[in-house]
Design brief:
This protein folds into 2 domains: 278 residues, Rossmann fold, CATH 3.40.50.1100; 121 residues, Rossmann fold (3-Layer(aba) Sandwich). The radius of gyration is 20 Å and the shape is globular. The chain is an alpha/beta fold. β1 and β2 form a beta hairpin. The relative contact order is 0.17. Bound molecules: pyridoxal-5'-phosphate (PLP). Pyridoxal-5'-phosphate (PLP) binds next to α7, α12 and α16.
Length: 415
C-alpha cells in the first residue's frame, strides 16, 4: 500500500514469513553481549532510561509509549557513540589480533596498545553526532582524528566535535559529498576511515558500528522485561543512512523471529532515501539528490548504507516520510508533557518519530495506515529519542520561539 496525505507519505510492505539469515548473521546474541561488555567498561557508562509516557499513550489511543532516551548517553547527547566506540574496539582488536576475552577498556587505552599500534589517524564524515562520537573515542585512545562535515553543519555541532581534539574540515555540498571526499583524502593520507555508512568494498567497519548499537537493544529488552513486557509490538526508527534502523530491526528479527515487532522507518521528506528505495522496489538502495535540506541534521543523508538497506528491505513494515514541522512538533510534545508524564529533551532527529506517531494516530486521512499497522489500544510502541539538544540554539528556537510551526489545518486539537 503506497499512500499520501498532503503532509505525510507512506509505504506499507508485507513480507513473506521466512527465517531472515542476514539479521541472524549480523546480530547474533554473542555480538550484542560483546558490545555490551565493552561499553560497560567505559567510565561513565550507564544504562540510558526507558521512559514510559502513559498519559500521552492514552491520548493517542495506544496501550503504551516507551521512549529509549539517549539524550545523555556517555555525556555525548546521542546514541551514536555506541557504534563508533565499538568500531574502534574492533579495529584495534583486529589489528593486534587480540581475542575478546583478553580485550578490556583499560588495556585498550594503555600505552602498550598505543605503542603497538603506532600513530593512527581515524577519519570520518558526519552530519554531527557520529563525528562527535568518533572524536571522543579517538581522544580516549590517544589517536588523531579528522572529521569532515558538510557546509550546512551548524557551528555548535562543529564546536562540539572540535572540543574532543579532532580536526574538522568543512566540505562544500551535502553529507554524501563529505563521505566521498574523505574516502579520497583518506587514501592519500593513510587515514583509517570509520564510516557509519557502507558501500561496495567497505562493509566491515559499518557492520561493527551497527553491532555496537546492539548494546542499546539489549538494555531495552532488559528494561522491558523488568516491566513484564516481552517485547514492544511496534518500533519506530528515524533514519539517515539506515544503520540504526537496520540494527534495531535486525536485532529484533534475530531475537524474536516472526514475533518481531512491526518495524517502521521515519525520514525527512527532503532526504527520504529509504522511502524512495522502497518505492522503486527493485531490491536495490537508491540515492536521492538535491540539497537534502532539513532541520533533522542527523537524517540529512541521500544515499542509504548498502548493508543497512539489505536488512531493512526484508524487515521494515512501513516507510513514512514527513516534513520538518512534524519533527518540531515531536520536540514540543516531548518538552511539554501531559500531567505526570516525564519531560524529555529531544532534538530534531530524536523527536521525529513521536511527531510521526502523533500524526498517524490523530490526523484525519491516516486511518488506513493505522489499520495496516494495527496500531491500537493494545499496542506497546517503542520510540528512540536518539539525541538531546545537540544544537542548543535551534532547540530553543523551536521550543521557545515556536519556529517550524505546524500549519493550522493539521492541528489535531481544534474546536
Ligand atoms: C540523532 C540521530 N538520530 C538518528 C540518526 C540516524 O542514524 P542512521 O544514519 O544510522 O540512519 C542519526 C545519524 O546521524 C542521528 O544523529
Amino acid at each position: 500500500m503506497d499512500s499520501t496525505v498532503p503532509n505525510c507519505s507512506w509505504i506499507v510492505r508485507e513480507h513473506e514469513k521466512k527465517e531472515l539469515t542476514s539479521s541472524k548473521e549480523m546480530f547474533p546474541i554473542e555480538i550484542a553481549r560483546t558490545a555490551r561488555r565493552f561499553h560497560r567498561q567505559i567510565p561513565g557508562y550507564k544504562m540510558s532510561p526507558l521512559v514510559s509516557l502513559p498519559r500521552l499513550a492514552a491520548m493517542f489511543g495506544v496501550g503504551g509509549i516507551w521512549v529509549k532516551d539517549e539524550a545523555s548517553r556517555l555525556e555525548l547527547n546521542s546514541f551514536k557513540v555506541l557504534g563508533g566506540s565499538f568500531a574502534l574496539y574492533r579495529f584495534i582488536q583486529d589489528r593486534l589480533g587480540i581475542p575478546d576475552k583478553e580485550m578490556n577498556y583499560k588495556y585498550l587505552i594503555s600505552k602498550e596498545v598505543k605503542k603497538r599500534l603506532g600513530d593512527i589517524t581515524f577519519a570520518s564524515a558526519t552530519d554531527g553526532n557520529h563525528g562527535r562520537g568518533i572524536a571522543w573515542a579517538a581522544q580516549k585512545l590517544g589517536h588523531k582524528c579528522v572529521i569532515y562535515v558538510h557546509e550546512e553543519t551548524s557551528v555548535r555541532r562543529i564546536d562540539a566535535i572540535r572540543s574532543y581534539g579532532a580536526t574538522v574540515r568543512i566540505i562544500e555540498g551535502t553529507y554524501d559529498d563529505a563521505v566521498r571526499q574523505i574516502v579520497v583524502d583518506g587514501k592519500e593520507n593513510g587515514w583509517e576511515i570509520i564510516s557509519d555508512t557502507s558501500w561496495e568494498g567497505y562493509r566491515t567497519v559499518p557492520t561493527w558500528i551497527m553491532q555496537g548499537y546492539s548494546t542499546m537493544m539489549m538494555e531495552i529488552q532488559e528494561q522491558f522485561s523488568g516491566q513484564g513486557i516481552a517485547r514492544p509490538t511496534h518500533v519506530f526508527v528515524q533514519a539517515g543512512v539506515g544503520a540504526l534502523a537496520a540494527s534495531v530491526f535486525g536485532y529484533y528479527h534475530s531475537l524474536c523471529g516472526q514475533k518481531a515487532p512491526r518495524c517502521i522507518i521515519v525520514e525527512p521528506e527532503n532526504a527520504n532515501c529509504l522511502f524512495q528505495s522502497a518505492r522503486i522496489d527493485d531490491g536495490n538502495a537508491h540515492q536521492v539528490g538535491g540539497d537534502l535540506d532539513t532541520i533533522m541534521a542527523g537524517l540529512a543523508c541521500g544515499q542509504p548504507s548498502e548493508i543497512a538497506w539489505n536488512i531493512i528491505k526484508d524487515t521494515a513494515d512501513a516507510y513514512v516520510s514527513v516534513p520538518d514541522y512534524i519533527a518540531a512538533r515531536g520536540m514540543r510534545v516531548y518538552a511539554t508533557p501531559l500531567k505526570d508524564d516525564p519531560f524529555i529533551i529531544s532534538g530534531e532527529s530524536g523527536a521525529v518519530t513521536l511527531g510521526a506517531l502523533l500524526t498517524i494516530m490523530k490526523q484525519h486521512g491516516m486511518e488506513s495506515l493505522r489499520q495496516a499497522l494495527q496500531l491500537d489500544e493494545d499496542s506497546q510502541v517503542l520510540l528512540i529519542n536518539t539525541e538531546g539538544n545537540t544544537d542548543p540554539l535551534q532547540f530553543r528556537q523551536i521550543i521557545w520561539e515556536g519556529s517550524n510551526p505546524v500549519p493550522k489545518e493539521y492541528w489535531f486539537d481544534r474546536d
